[in-house]
Structure formats: structure tokens, C-alpha cells
Fold:
Amino acid sequence: MMKKDNEPNLKGTFLSVMLIGGVIIVMWVSIFVLYMTRV
Structure:
């Protein structure tokens, strides 16, 4: 089964992936809104 030692590392990895994903989504939405206002 899983060891307890890997749990904090997995949680940190998941958090960083979600943070990067959130940044990408915010950038995409802001670029999309800028494009829609220019058109």
C-alpha cells in the first residue's frame, strides 16, 4: 500500500498543478476577454 512519507509530497504536487492550471485558465480568460472587446 501507500507509505505515509509520500503523502505530503503528493499533496504539494497536486497543489502546484492546480495553481499552475489556475494561472493558465486566468491568462486564457483574460486574453479571450481582451479579444472579444477588440472585435
About this structure: The chain is about 80% helix and 0% strand. The longest helix spans residues 7-38.
